[in-house]
Structures are given as structure tokens and as C-alpha cells.
Amino acid sequence: MAFAQEQKGGDDLRIIIMRHAEKPANGDNLSCKGFNRAMMLPGVLVKKFGVPRYVYVPSPSTGKATKSGRMLQTVWPLATKYNLTVNSKFDVENTKALAKNISNKTGTVLVVWEHNAIRSIIAALGIKADKLKWKSNDYDSLWIVSIHNGKASLQQTAQGINAPDGCRF
């Protein structure tokens, strides 16, 4: 049974935090490998965690380069398959407001964010993040923050996806 279903009516919160999928050496979108990962994510995430109740990506309309569009591209197949609303109201740097908004939720939340800002999200959720680092070539990690009775804990795991490099279309 999925976590979101088990926690119905409870106050537990599980936040799955991941980086966008692979990007090309130049350009602002996903690479073919990243697109393939995005297409494989729904099956992997739902099997591991169930369908999330909430999904967050940074706002793509901040007047900056479209780099934050990668996060939306990463989550789009999951959102499409399960008809999920994607919250894109927070700028990539606005991690404290994001964490505050998420903290008011229950169930499972998926956050797809820029890897350099993930540590700030973790810290704003109550995890000591001083020694945490997301490697620049790591597109497979998942950081899971669980909040139970107001106490936060962190678990690190992996998607386990080995996406092919080439585009199949």
C-alpha cells in the first residue's frame, strides 16, 4: 500500500527530493538521456513511494534563463500519467518559503529542484545539512525527509535508473 494511502488523516509527511534529469553540455533542456530518465521515473517513483499528493518544481517564469524548465520537463511524465498538479510558484532560490509551504502538508511530496539549492531545502526542513553535498554529475539520487511528530529525519537512496543515451523518437 502506498504511503499516501496509509497516512490518510495522519500528520506524517514524507518529502522526496531529487534533481532534474540529465542535461546536455550546452542548452537549457533535458538531454535525450534525461528525457529517457523522465519517462522511466513514474514507474520507479510510484513503485517505491506511491503516487505523491503534491509535486513542486521551481517557477520557470522568473525572467531568468529557462534552466528551471528542466525540473518541469523531468516531472512532466509523472504529472501527466497521474493527472497531478505541479506547483511552480516558488523561485529556485526561495527555499525557505518552499519548505514552509511543504511543512503544512501531509502524505508524500515530490520536489524536483536544482541540485545546488537542495541542501537549503533540506536545512529549511530541519535537517542538519552542513556536510551534505549533491554531486554535479549525480542525477540518480533521492533524498527523503520524513517528518513524524514534528521531528525530521533524512534518508538517502537512489532511483536505480540506467537510462539509455539516445533519443528513441
From TrEMBL:
Q: Protein name, please?
A: Histidine phosphatase family protein
Lineage, uppermost ranks: Bacteria, Pseudomonadati, Bacteroidota, Sphingobacteriia, Sphingobacteriales
Specify the species: Mucilaginibacter aquatilis
